[in-house]
Amino acid sequence: MGRWILFSKLEAEVFPIFQLVKNRLHSFKSMRIQAGIVLVLVGIIPLIIFSQVILTTYQNEAIEVRIGELKEKGSMISNLLISSNYFANREDSDFSEANKEIAQVADAYRGRIVIVDRNLQILKDTYGLEEGKTIISEQVINCYNGSSSQYIDHENEYVELVMPIINATTKENSGIMIMSFSTKGIYQVYDSMQHKTLILIIVISILVVLASIVYANILTKPFSRVSSIIDHATEGYLDEKVSIKGYTEVEKISDSFNHLLTRLQTLENSRQEFVSNVSHELKTPITSIKVLAESLLAQEDAPAELYREFMEDITEEIERENKIINDLLSLVKLDKKSGELNISSVNINELLEQILKRLRPIAAKRNIELVFESFRPVEAEVDEVKLSLAINNLIENAIKYNYDDGWVRVSLNADHKFFYVKVADSGVGIPEELQESIFERFYRVDKARSRETGGTGLGLSITRSAVLMHRGAIKVYSKEKEGATFTIRIPLNYIA
């Protein structure tokens, strides 16, 4: 029991913290926050790096310039010492001019100059501390061998140069000059620049953050507008269009969304029209049957011939009702996933010949010529039943909506990827403005004529569904009273 109480207390304390962290992490998914962070990083980090590079470059360049000046002054002092025989007859000679020059250089650069002879004895020390003493160090020994050296102490802020004093005439090393100078002034300027740079970075960073917030809001505002319209559309307001100007990408999203809304509105209208048409199409035969039955019941002594005539009419209406129901069931099956296709390798040439063989008697009744033209043998992976249904509907429509003594031409061709079935006729044709609607369910170009021919208005919708299930496409070209041409393109190899 105690453990359960302890666990409950721990959960009560930890869960709010976990929830807070989760909410914080979720907030980073916001495009506004991410854009703001990116803009801040892009604006501030390069500024910090650039300023640090500038300061470091200044420091190094200033020290290098100081060293160059010291070497130049050292060279002048070396020449003066050689010309005044500074390292010979020191008791009888006057070296006041050389000593004065050495002192002036040391004072000018706030440093110390030490002159050492070949015996490692200190002849001159501008500080006056080490004169007459002997100096032994690695730098001095190496300098006698002809190699000068320099040492920069950043921590104690000074530079030390060890230079040989070479006699230009004899090329001999007459002595050594040790120059130690403070770089404190350079570091003071560096610190002052660093302080001012820091203030500048803070000011610029504040401006960058403010600009990033403003720009991130401007950047994401169109998306908020799109999101608001999408939410509005989900409530059923599909007639409102998105009109957002600005970024090219946002305008593309706006155009695509408007296209989607138009498509959804079309589908909604089609759905409503489909429900209305289904109700109407199913009700019409029932109404006819009811009228015929009531007419018979109203006649007490109706002759057998009249009963037979009425029963034939009732049978036709029942057959029509049955055909509508069967077509609807076919559409339901075709609307299911394409995984239900029974794919097999089919000889398309033979398939078309079988379909034409079944339809020739219908065409012969109106003296319509059926012509089949095959350009090559075609084997393809298809669902034979569904593809037969689709092509049968096309050819049957070409016969139904044709003129007496007309013609229907069916052709088959293929390339390396697709096969093509073309059905052309000399019939009544389809008005251009109605061609986009003919594949809708229960849509009829001429409703009176369609009912006369026994059409349900579902044949082309079934054909289109079957073609799309095969990853194919169907197109129509027609002019009114000049016939119609339907073209089907289907892959030779089915791709699930």
TrEMBL record:
GO cellular component: plasma membrane
Pfam families: HATPase_c, HisKA
InterPro entries: BphY/WalK/GraS-like, HAMP_dom, HATPase_C_sf, HATPase_dom, His_kinase_dom, HisK_dim/P_dom, HisK_dim/P_sf, Sig_transdc_His_kin-like_C
Catalytic activity: ATP + protein L-histidine = ADP + protein N-phospho-L-histidine
GO biological process, one term: cellular response to phosphate starvation
EC number(s) reported in the record: 2.7.13.3
Signal sequence residues: none
CDD domains: HATPase, HisKA
GO molecular function: phosphoprotein phosphatase activity; phosphorelay sensor kinase activity
Enzyme class: transferase
Keyword DNA repair: no
Subcellular location: Membrane
PROSITE patterns: HAMP, HIS_KIN
Keywords on record: Kinase, Membrane, Phosphoprotein, Transferase, Transmembrane, Transmembrane helix, Two-component regulatory system
UniProt domain HAMP: residue ranges: 217-269
SUPFAM superfamilies listed in its UniProt record: ATPase domain of HSP90 chaperone/DNA topoisomerase II/histidine kinase, Homodimeric domain of signal transducing histidine kinase
Entry's transmembrane regions: 33-58, 198-218
Membrane listed as a keyword: yes
Residues annotated as domain Histidine kinase: 277-494
Protein name: histidine kinase
Taxonomic source organism: Velocimicrobium porci
